[in-house]
């Protein structure tokens, strides 16, 4: 049986290029709807390039943090992939 972290990584791996999902949405899809902060902590600790953590954003539409270059880098990656990004960081 997969633990929460494994489920989160699986959900995030499944976010298609050019798309985003909120931390809350990832938590819900991983089976723990109230664990959005835990998802954020897992993504902050992720350095595996096969897990596209830059595709996970805040519920208010802001990009949130990014451990590989900050919010500006995260926003740039999302725009490059064709994702709609509402905030200006």
Entry keywords:
Arc Repressor Mutant, subunit A, mainly alpha, 89 residues, two-stranded parallel ribbon, 4% strand
Give a concise summary.
It contains four helices and two strands, in the order αβααβα. The chain is mainly alpha-helical and 89 residues long.
Descriptive overview:
By secondary structure, the chain is mainly alpha-helical. The protein has one domain: Arc Repressor Mutant, subunit A. The protein is 43% helix and 4% strand. The protein has four helices and two strands. The protein has helices at residues 4-13, 23-29, 36-44, 70-81; strands at 21-22, 56-57. A two-stranded parallel ribbon has the order 1-2. Helix 2 (23-29) packs across helix 3 (36-44). The longest helix has 12 residues, at 70-81. The N and C termini lie far apart (38 Å).
Q: Name the CATH superfamily classification.
A: Winged helix-like DNA-binding domain superfamily/Winged helix DNA-binding domain
Gross morphology: globular
CATH topology: Arc Repressor Mutant, subunit A
Low-confidence stretches: none
List the helices and strands and how they pair.
Blueprint: H1 4-13, E1 21-22, H2 23-29, H3 36-44, E2 56-57, H4 70-81
Parallel strand pairs: 1-2
Helix pairs in contact: 2-3
């Amino acid at each position: 049986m997969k633990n929460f972290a494994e489920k989160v990584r699986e959900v995030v791996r499944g976010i298609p290029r050019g798309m985003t999902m909120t931390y809350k949405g990832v938590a819900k899809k991983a089976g723990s709807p109230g664990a959005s902060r835990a998802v954020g902590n897992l993504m902050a600790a992720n350095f595996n390039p096969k897990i596209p953590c830059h595709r996970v954003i805040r519920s208010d539409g802001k990009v949130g943090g990014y451990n590989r270059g900050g919010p500006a880098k995260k926003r740039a990656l999302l725009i490059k992939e064709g994702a709609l990004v509402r905030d200006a960081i």
